[in-house]
Amino acid sequence: MTASLLYSLAGAMLCGIGLFGLLWLSHLLRKLLAFNIMGSGVFLVMVGLPQHQGGPDPVPQALVLTGIVVAIAATALAVVLIRRYYHLSGMTSLEGERASREGGPE
Amino acid sequence: MTLWLMAGLLFTPLAWAVLTLLMNFAWGRLVTWGGIVVQVLVSLGLWLIVSRDGGFYYGLGGWQAPLGIELRVDGLAVTFVLLTAVVASACGLHAGVYIDPDKPWHRYFWPLFWFLWAGLNAVWLGGDLFNLYVGLELISLSAVGLVALGGKAGALRASIRYLLAALLGSLAYLLGVALIYGQFGTLSIAGVVFRLEEHAVPAGSGLALALMVTGLALKTALFPLHRWLPPAHGIAKSPVSALLSALVVKASFYIAARLWLELGEPLGSLAAAQLVGLLGSAAVVWGSWLACRQLELKQVVAYSSVAQIGYLFLLFPLTYSVSESVSLQAQQGVTLQVISHALAKAAMFLAAGNLILATGSARVDALTGVSRFLPFSLFSFGLAGVSLMSLPPSGGFAAKWLLLQASLGSGQWWWLLVLLAGGLLSAAYVFRIYRASFLESLETDEFYHPPRSLEVIPMVLALMAIGLGLVSAEVLSVMALPFEEEGSP
């Protein structure tokens, strides 16, 4: 097994874990973390898969930097929205049950 | 000349976004009027240049493909740039009057509006897969911000749902991009096509295309991935809903269509094409059916968007392994559908906003008696509905006529049933609104009268949607212009 394949498979696994979390968990912050894990998986595939004359390829590294900036912007926006939503409704999930109140300010 | 036009087109929205960030709502509106004039002139100028000289590749800032950002300026792209200029200007002007300037957070409308415009232009002109991703994210993030501008818990819930769906879609697309780059070593669509012509198709590259198209379908709200759209479009302020329905969902579809037209033949399969067409048909029927059953006016219009988006995906089966002329008909039909739906749906949402403003309630049954009071807005709503029902001579009719011919030409007669059923169902939900507004109640009606300028804007858009059917040949001729291939990697 080559190194690039190892990276890609690990990235694919991270994607799978993130996707599972994004679809399955109901707490919004957990969903957001799952999104970040999935993003890391995608970046790992992006950096690991391409090979340039037997060594790592510089172009995807630059792309992943941009990708990270985009992911941080998205995460920041999501955190702000979730926080505001929690303050207004007292809920931490979209399902509309007030039961999932753990881990937040009263 | 081209240099200044390109600079104006890409630089103005970003500059205006930063400028308006520093101002209150009233000043932002004033500055935005200036920006709208610049954008409309620049878009028109670029359209005229391309319709005279044909399309070209443009390296931004003089940097060519692998290092710089390469833009593909062709007939289709400039047509959509111009469409964006028309619809976004209308929504911007409407929003300036419609949105309440006294709520302090409303001043963020202008920066978000301009960032959205910048992202749209970047997507129409983008030539490589990664910059398309950045453009898409710019669009999604500003669109989510615009939905959240409502400020209430319901608006936030809708915007979070929208954000999660959009992010998941983007990641699926980006994973596909990573696989494409890993296999072909290039990000430009033209470069991938070039490599596919030279070498055999590598195993598994169909997966990359499938991932990208699935992600984009989620962002375009193709059935059954449409669940996020109606709450977001229904709860946003009316000018925002108009922007989202008319332009934002079209951006992700535009990328999916581009990918399919360039890479679908080597990487796709007949089963995949038929499956996407089937989902599109299901969207047409299911979306229209749900639109008939909604209690709130804007939810009706939002579900109608789900249905109208379904038609667009008929592009996939109608261009896969069919003759050149049938494929061209399907492409032209889908292009006209994009344009006519953008104009009609923007008109419909803006008119619906006026009706809600007048009655003070979002419900369909609150429209009782509004036909006597607000006939102008109701008439714009109806004209837009005529285009959605695809009656002649509207743009919607021309679009569906071309799609109908393409289905017959390729022997896929089953899409005919979808086109017919969709037309009938859309007539049903438009007439339902009309029926509610012509009923009379015994109580005295109390309506607020929206300013005249709010009523004129949807009327202009609706008339354009109707008139599109008369000038469709001219619009389509710009698409078919020759394209200079030099500069492509």
TrEMBL record, chain A:
According to the record, the segments passing through the membrane are 6-25, 32-50, 62-82
**Membrane topology, record value:** Multi-pass membrane protein
According to the UniProt entry, where is the signal peptide? none
Q: Which InterPro entries match?
A: CPA3_antiporter_subunitC (IPR050601), NUOK/Mnh_C1-like (IPR039428)
Keyword hit for Heme: no
Name the keywords, alphabetized: Cell membrane, Membrane, Transmembrane, Transmembrane helix
Compartments reported by the entry: Cell membrane
**What coarse category fits the chief subcellular location reported for this protein?**
membrane
Of the GO CC terms on this record, one is: plasma membrane
Instruction: Write out the similarity annotation.
Output: Belongs to the CPA3 antiporters (TC 2.A.63) subunit C family.
User: What name does UniProt use for this protein?
Assistant: Na+/H+ antiporter subunit C
| Species, as recorded | Marinobacter vulgaris
Q: What is the lineage of its organism?
A: Bacteria, Pseudomonadati, Pseudomonadota, Gammaproteobacteria, Pseudomonadales
From TrEMBL, chain B:
Q: Name one GO molecular function term.
A: NADH dehydrogenase (ubiquinone) activity
Membrane-crossing residues?
6-23, 30-50, 76-96, 108-126, 132-150, 162-181, 201-222, 242-261, 267-289, 301-322, 342-361, 373-393, 413-435, 456-483
Q: Where in the cell is it found?
A: Cell membrane; Membrane
What Pfam family does this protein match (any one)? Proton_antipo_M
InterPro entries tied to this protein: CPA3_Na-H_Antiporter_D, NADH_UbQ_OxRdtase, ND/Mrp_TM
Gene Ontology cellular component annotations, sorted alphabetically = plasma membrane
Q: Topology relative to the membrane, per the entry?
A: Multi-pass membrane protein
Q: Name one GO biological process term.
A: ATP synthesis coupled electron transport
Which segments constitute the NADH:quinone oxidoreductase/Mrp antiporter transmembrane domain? 127-422
Highest taxon of source = Bacteria
Keywords of the record: Cell membrane, Membrane, Transmembrane, Transmembrane helix
What is the similarity comment for this entry? Belongs to the CPA3 antiporters (TC 2.A.63) subunit D family.
Q: What is this protein called?
A: Hydrogenase 4 subunit B
Species for this entry: Marinobacter vulgaris
